[in-house]
## 1
Amino acid sequence: MNCLIPQTFMSTPLRAIRKGSFCSSASSFQGVGVSMVQGASRGIGLEFVRQLLEREDKGHVVATCRNPNGATGLLELKRKFSERLNILQLDVTNESTIEASALSVRESYGSINLLINASGVLSLPNKLQPETTLNKVQKSSLLHAYEVNAVGPIMVIKHMWPLLKAREGTGDERDFAVVANLSARVGSIGDNRLGGWHSYRSSKTALNQLTKTISLEFARKKDPILCILLHPGTVDTDLSRPFQRNVPQEKLFTKEFSVQKLLSIIDGVKRSDNGKFFAWDGQEIPW
Ligand SMILES: NC(=O)c1ccc[n+]([C@@H]2O[C@H](COP(=O)([O-])OP(=O)(O)OC[C@H]3O[C@@H](n4cnc5c(N)ncnc54)[C@H](OP(=O)(O)O)[C@@H]3O)[C@@H](O)[C@H]2O)c1
């Protein structure tokens, strides 16, 4: 199984990666595309990996998660798609695992064309509970949500940046790479009508601002990478399960449906979409 990170990757300084410096194995991936899904052990991230692998185009997928040996859904996919799925260990709160993944991806593929940051946390026993009042807001919860939901995905983009390249050799008109960050409608300030969930809500707002800022930098530097933010709808996963009681059945999506919709947004993304925040149905969400 390809989920162990060789020690040599751990010790190679990341600064050694230069834009455009491809390893010899890179050319063999021209024309098929390489996608990376970060936060792929379960839920929406795992479903992205499954749908990307089941596509006709035979693209390769790098799936990262905190504990590859315990990621049963990913291991099952690995049995079916052994050649096209690469599982790497990555915890967004541990920067050395992000660097190690970047180095491993460079070594194996040379570049990636699509990066999906799907990891996220809404509640954690004894650590983070969606707050119903200011009285319940704790510094530790705010910081934890911010670390996992905002800081983590941004550090992933930082380290993957030198590897993000348009797909080559396909005759594809798409001449840019795409970064898609899983946000949430509750991160919208303009759409905030209910209050509550201070930690989660504000961490997604921070993710939105950071993603928009990065999208502008890439554009200014004429680096052909587009960044978008996606709200998947309310999706039946571990994250939403404790909070589904008041969600009407027709508004609770399966992960299969939500990811189909999100992939169609990613597939259709245009240069003018850079830095935008889209809901599952393609509608733009106000900041
Ligand atoms: N489900 C919804 O209704 C909904 C609505 C709006 C937005 N979203 C967003 O969509 C994304 C996916 O949510 P989901 O519903 O699929 O949630 P989920 O089923 O709870 O999965 C969360 C994923 O994040 C990973 N993760 C948590 N902390 C991590 C860390 N420190 N480093 C790396 N990975 C970490 C988890 O890995 P482990 O298995 O290791 O814990 C898991 O793979 C999240 O960003 C979420 O905020 C979801």
Note: The chain is about 35% helix and 15% strand.
## 2
Amino acid sequence: MTDHTIDAPRILRTRHELRRRHLTVAATERLTPHMIRLTLTGADLHDFASAAPDDHMKLVLNADSDSPQMRDYTPRRFNAQELVVDVVDHPGGPAADWARAAAVGDAITIGGPRGSQRIEGDIDHWLLIGDETALPAIGRWIEEMPAATRVTSIVGVPDAADEQTVTTAADWTAHWLHRPLDQATDPAPYLAALDAMPLGPRTFVWVAAEAMVARAIRTHLLENGHHKQWIKASGYWVAGQADASDKGIED
Ligand SMILES: Cc1cc2nc3c(=O)[nH]c(=O)nc-3n(C[C@H](O)[C@H](O)[C@H](O)COP(=O)(O)OP(=O)(O)OC[C@H]3O[C@@H](n4cnc5c(N)ncnc54)[C@H](O)[C@@H]3O)c2cc1C
């Protein structure tokens, strides 16, 4: 048996200057029934940097009030003029509430990304697993992958209308799991999908979902012999807790 710890993928960390940028909503779109796409613009974007698809920045909500609140979001797509953010429309929460009500011309402050973690190595197959909060990172990742890269996604969304199309040069296989948003804390559909998909060697698995779900998927992979250095798992939100995440799930 090959020892995949010897040349396991490396995580290359880069730091960015932590800055607040003051932007304006330039467009809003109901991308799918449960996803709101916001395009932000502003001169402050001229040096915006995001080196990895699973980067995150802070949306600073009520920035001018006595009690601003911050939530983590993925830079879905960006250039020096525009930054696209996809926000899951879930009940409750200041970020989801803000996105639902956002209108062209509204002001929004963002902070970061503070740093990036790029995964590099001799990877034959990428497996990207997540719920709708991970879809911006997964979509961006697949979109940015070079030609012939083998990538499979397993994404949980409420139904077929919430699936997304991504234009990519990569060799992409998509598996969509359908379950209502209020069942996003159930890992069972992901584990069943994994059981139906034996993983070859040199498969890097990236996971981001509700924290208990992400942990259950990681545990399942480890129990089935996948080495922890070939897995990166994060809890992008925590059921029942506001402003909570578990960004680097370890043993
Ligand atoms: C690195 C990283 C990147 C992320 N990128 C994105 C992104 O691009 N798009 C995106 O939509 N989210 C993303 N998230 C998740 C997002 O930060 C959380 O969902 C956040 O809690 C939403 O803030 P809120 O103010 O709407 O709700 P909060 O005030 O944080 O939470 C209020 C309640 O809603 C629940 N809740 C939070 N999120 C969800 C959900 N998705 N479904 C159901 N219930 C929920 C909480 O458990 C809590 O009970 C990311 C998280 C991380 C850590």
Note: The mean pLDDT is 95.
